[in-house]
Design a protein that fits this description.
About 40% of the residues lie in helices and about 15% in strands. The strands form two sheets. It has a six-stranded antiparallel beta sheet. It has eight helices and eight strands; from the N terminus they run H-H-H-E-E-H-H-H-E-E-H-E-E-E-H-E.
Length: about 220
């Protein structure tokens, strides 16, 4: 059985790989930044995970998951996103509250509980933040998407997910009146700082480049 810390490392490695479509591995500094730990601490843990044959990694090289590591990671992510969905849909938690609680619940080891939770929720494909939920076989549906910052001026798109799950960011998104599947139109872009003027459901707002780089969208093919 893995420790909670080991599971967190595997989850973060898989998260980076999923974000990049499994193109390339994960850098040590990148992982340290994601976990908010020192690179020296990462190196110690990587050695342990390699000994357990969950990752393949050479010093100063990129980190990759083995087949077993990927299986473990998918199960952790599946549990996390199912618990987020349960908290949001059944217990009326807001979407900025569910992440922290799901971080605790994802380490429950009962497979029977997870399968019953999935069935109880109707086998959801996505969590409240728009992230895909792996199925019981560890399969996950990755759909092509863009960042809001990549959408051209005058074009419409639809928000499908967020890149930043922090409570502060999600509250800000909510304050703007933006939610999953809402339509966004890019009205203008300021050359000085790449901030955007956007229209959300017909309401205009000015947002920063950082904000636009944390909103995932699909372009409107009907425009």
């Amino acid at each position: 059985m893995l420790s909670i810390t080991e599971e967190n490392y595997i989850k973060h490695i898989l998260g980076h790989l999923l974000e990049n479509g499994f193109q390339g591995g994960v850098g040590t500094n990148e992982l340290a930044s994601s976990l908010e730990v020192k690179p020296s601490s990462v190196n110690v843990m990587l050695k342990r995970l390699r000994e357990k044959e969950l990752i393949s990694y050479e010093k100063y090289g990129k980190i990759f998951l083995t087949e077993e590591g990927r299986k473990v990671g998918m199960e952790i992510i599946r549990k996390h996103r199912l618990w987020e969905t349960f908290l949001y849909e059944k217990l009326d938690f807001t979407w900025d509250e569910v992440h922290e609680v799901a971080e605790q619940l994802e380490h429950i080891q009962s497979r029977k509980l997870v399968e019953k939770l999935d069935k109880f929720l109707g086998f959801p494909a996505f969590d409240p933040h728009g992230d895909p939920i792996p199925n019981s076989k560890g399969e996950i549906k990755i759909e092509p998407k863009l960042l809001l910052s990549e959408i051209e001026t005058g074009k419409k798109c639809k928000m499908v997910a967020v890149n930043d799950n922090s409570a502060a960011f999600l509250k800000y998104v909510q304050e703007l009146g933006l939610a999953i599947n809402h339509e966004i139109m890019v009205i203008s872009r300021l050359d000085f700082d790449d901030s955007l003027e956007i229209s959300i459901q017909g309401k205009a707002s000015r947002v920063s480049k950082k904000f636009a780089q944390n909103i995932y969208v699909v372009s409107d093919k009907n425009q």
